[in-house]
């Protein structure tokens, strides 16, 4: 997901991979845009051979398309993919919730409380019209959802959910608007249900939350 965590063991290629991935998810690299290697080489300060390897890695996440000898382009956005990602996210996140609620301990509850506190603070600023907090909100939104499922004890599930969450997030970034009070209310209710270990209630909120996200993106008119 969109993170700024610094890992001293990262290589230059790892850093650039993360930068390009973030630029795709944030919309800085638009869907369908051709990735010109010479320009990208200058933009990201990396060799063309390393750049090709990075872009090939991103094809495995369906964020980039390889065009054979013609190069690479950012994966296009479509209503079909958005709806497929929504279905997949709902399945994965509700499954992770059921596992996490059963195994979560006091430390898990603490992570949820901390994550929701930061998310709620960012959302309060956004509701007040402070668009500069959008980047904070994106990060804290994932941290909150991640905290809720963090006790599922499945690294594979967490990695898969993270990838789907990011691809779904790309569509929200393309919509270029915050969903407002309804999404804030969803997060508050999800927070309360998590602490109560109410699996059925939390899963219902997630399904509604994801579907309303799809409707919001489609209403923006930026996806066909």
Strand order of the largest sheet: 1-3-2
* CATH topology label of the largest domain: Four Helix Bundle (Hemerythrin (Met), subunit A)
CATH architecture of the largest domain: Up-down Bundle
Domain unit count: 2
Look at the structure and give the mean pLDDT. 91
Contiguous runs where pLDDT drops below 50 for at least 5 residues: 1-7
The first-to-last residue Cα distance is 25 Å
CATH class of the largest domain: Mainly Alpha
- What is the radius of gyration? 18 Å
Structural class designation: mainly alpha
- Total number of β-strand segments? 3
Helix content: 55-70%
Strand fraction equals: under 5%
Order of helices and strands: HEHHEEHHHHHH
Quick gist of this model?
This protein is 69% helix and 4% strand. It has 224 residues and is mostly helical. The radius of gyration is 18 Å and the shape is globular.
Structural key phrases:
224 residues; mainly alpha; Four Helix Bundle (Hemerythrin (Met), subunit A); three-stranded antiparallel β-sheet; 9 helices; disordered N terminus
Describe the structure.
- Keywords: DNA-binding, Transcription, Transcription regulation.
- This is GntR family transcriptional regulator.
- InterPro entries: GntR_C, TF_FadR/GntR_C, Tscrpt_reg_HTH_GntR, WH-like_DNA-bd_sf, WH_DNA-bd_sf.
- This protein is mainly α and 224 residues long.
- It folds into two domains: 12-74, Winged helix-like DNA-binding domain superfamily/Winged helix DNA-binding domain (Arc Repressor Mutant, subunit A, Orthogonal Bundle); 79-219, GntR ligand-binding domain-like (Four Helix Bundle (Hemerythrin (Met), subunit A)).
- The protein is 69% helix and 4% strand.
- The protein has nine helices and three strands, in the order H-E-H-H-E-E-H-H-H-H-H-H.
- It has helices spanning 12-26, 37-44, 48-59, 79-103, 106-127, 134-149, 155-175, 181-195, 199-219; strands at 34-35, 64-66, 72-74.
- It has a three-stranded antiparallel beta sheet.
- It starts with 11 loop residues before the first helix and ends in a 5-residue tail after the last helix.
- Residues 1-7 have low confidence and may be disordered.
């Amino acid at each position: 997901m969109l993170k700024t965590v610094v890992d001293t063991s990262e290589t230059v290629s790892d850093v650039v991979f993360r930068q390009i991935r973030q630029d795709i998810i944030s919309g800085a690299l638009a869907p369908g845009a051709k990735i010109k290697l010479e320009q990208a080489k200058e933009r990201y300060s990396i060799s063309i051979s390393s750049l090709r390897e990075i872009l090939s890695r991103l094809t495995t996440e369906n964020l980039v398309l390889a065009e054979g000898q013609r190069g690479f382009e950012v994966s296009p956005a479509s209503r079909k993919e958005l709806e497929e990602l929504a279905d997949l996210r709902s399945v994965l996140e509700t499954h992770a919730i059921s596992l996490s609620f059963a195994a979560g301990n006091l430390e898990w509850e603490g992570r949820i409380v901390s994550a929701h506190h930061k998310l709620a603070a960012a959302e309060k600023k956004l509701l007040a019209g402070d668009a500069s907090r959008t980047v904070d909100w994106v990060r804290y939104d994932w941290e909150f959802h991640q905290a809720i499922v963090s006790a599922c004890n499945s690294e594979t599930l967490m990695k898969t959910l993270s990838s789907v969450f990011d691809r779904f997030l790309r569509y929200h970034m393309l919509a270029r608007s915050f969903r407002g009070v309804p999404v804030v209310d969803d997060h508050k209710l999800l927070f309360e249900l998590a602490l109560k270990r109410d699996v059925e209630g939390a899963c219902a909120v997630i399904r509604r939350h994801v579907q309303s996200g799809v409707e919001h993106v489609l209403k923006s008119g930026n996806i066909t």
